[in-house]
Structure formats: structure tokens, C-alpha cells
Amino acid sequence: MNHLPPSGASQQPGQDLWQQPGAQAAGNTAWEREVLERLVLATVNEQRAARRWRIFWRLLWMGLFGAAIWFFGKEGATTTVSGPHTAVVEIKGEIASGADASAEFVNAAMRSALEDSGSKALVLLINSPGGSPVQAGMINDEILRLKALHQKPVYAVVEETCASAAYYIAAAADEIYVDKASLVGSIGVLLDGFGFTGTMEKLGVERRLLTAGSNKGMLDPFSPMSPEQREHAQEMLDTIHQQFITVVQQGRGKRLHATADTFSGLFWTGEQAVAMGLADQLGSLDSVARDIVQAEDIIDYTRRDNVAERLAKRFGAALGEGVVQAGKSWGVSLR
């Protein structure tokens, strides 16, 4: 059967009408391929540009963050001053390892202050409810060592509160100055926690605790405490309490007018503390620097966390504080 071209169609010389659709399809395919290649190339270039900008902004933020750490981190450093001045080290908040009022920070600051040739005396500016007896003892020991080494007086100036472990520290000072309304004292030891044994029995919950050593779980809040364990814990508290009493007696000497209540854990106003011999006089940081040290220029040597350390602690606290507090049922403290 012969196929003829459609009527009215003209044929150019050498043109194969039956191949024309295939040629058009090939042309369309090439055009589509070119468009796709351009789109892919544009997308790749766009992604590369976006990646470069991300890298740029990350480097910029890292640079700004590093500059901030360098700038604000200097606040933890101590500035050496050649002229006569009163050196100050703050003891504020909880006295504990890792805190601003830790032995690590306070002792380092005191050493820097007393090693400076321009410092005439060191003032411990205290506003603390207490804390760890270990940290307080380490600071107390360092005060005594530095006083003997540098032969410079150390004064304690109390703002709102100087209780328990804070007073443990203040007792090492040559003199203690308070405001008439300051809270001073609380010479005692505390071991606190909770017991849930009765609640567990009501709820039908069984505590399964395995130990190697009959007294290993003596402070477990979900297990009962035997009379022997309670007696042992009380002996430990009494020992630490006696250490505290000895430190106060040695530090205050004949100035202390001890009564039956002095070492009972009670606390008093600053005015009462002066009358009892727990403090020497009413005074403030400015009055001590001006009238006692006679060096009105005050230089703060307090060691504090820099920005990086604060950020790390905040992130760590946000993630772990709940877990730590949930697991910390018992703790010995002077507060």
C-alpha cells in the first residue's frame, strides 16, 4: 500500500516528511536538557552561596563571642594597684564548692590582695547564710596562714547576714564589724533529709536496695534508720560542731562572752552580737577603710566566674539541677 503525503502539503527537496516529528522531539529533548542543566547549576550556585553566608555568619558570631569572653573575662582578674588602698574580697551567697564563695575563689582572691604591696589591709565583705563546713574551714585556715605570712590585718565587715559557715570564716579575722541590724551567729551544724518509709508502705511500694556493708544505705530516704545509725550520724555532727566551737573560741579569745545559747545555733542582731563578743564594733566597709585602715581607696579583688564559666554553669544547671536536687536527700551544712 502506498502512503501519500497529505493533500495541500508541499515537500521541500530532500525533506523526509515522515522523519519530521522525530526531529522535533529531539530538538525538544535537547532544549529541556539545557533548561534542566541551567536550573541544576543555578540551584547548586545558590546552595553554595547560602553555605558561604552561613559559614560567614557563624565565624562572625564566634568572633563576637570570643571577643565578649576576652573582654568580660577580665572581670575575674585582679588589678595590681601601687598606691595605698584597702583590699576587699566579697563572700556572698552560699559557701560551697564551685560557687563564687568557694575556697578556691576566695583563697585565690585573698592571696592576690595581700601580696599586693599597696594593700594596707584586707576586708572580707560578708553577706552569707552559710554553707559547707569544709569550704569554710579551708578559708579559715588560709586567712590564718596569710595573716602570719604578710603581717597585714584582716577585717570582716558584715552586711545583712553572717551566719553559720560565714561566721566560721569571720572568726579568723582580727576584728568583726557589723550593722546594728545584721544577723550574726547560728553556730551549729545541720544534717537534713526526708524519710518516705511510711508513705511507701501506704502506697504499697517496696524499696529494693542492695548494699555491701550493713550501714552503706544508712542515709537512704526510702529505708528506715536504725538507732545505731542515728547515733553514729549524731556523733559526726557533734564532732563538726565542736570543731566550729573551737574555731570561734580561738578566733574571738577573751572578747567572747559565751553563754549556754552562744553555740546552740541561735543567731542575733549585730547590736546584740557586739554585746556578746561575737563582733567588735558597728561599722561598714567605707567606715572601716576610712577610720580603721586609713586608706579610703578601695580595690575589689573578688574572684568571680567569667562569661564563659557563667554560661557553662547556666547550661549545666538547666540540664542537671533537677536531677541533682532529686538525688541529694542529705547534706551536712553550717546554716
From TrEMBL:
One of its GO terms (molecular function) is serine-type peptidase activity. The keyword Hydrolase applies. Residues 8-22 have a biased composition (Polar residues). One of its GO terms (biological process) is proteolysis. Residues 1-24 are annotated as: Disordered. It holds the Pfam family Peptidase_S49. The chain crosses the membrane at residues 55-73. Gene3D superfamilies: 2-enoyl-CoA Hydratase, Chain A, domain 1, 6.20.330.10. Residues 150-294 form the Peptidase S49 domain. CDD domains: S49_Sppa_N_C (cd07023). Keywords: Hydrolase, Membrane, Protease, Serine protease, Transmembrane, Transmembrane helix. Belongs to the peptidase S49 family. PANTHER family: PEPTIDASE S49, PROTEINASE. This is S49 family peptidase.
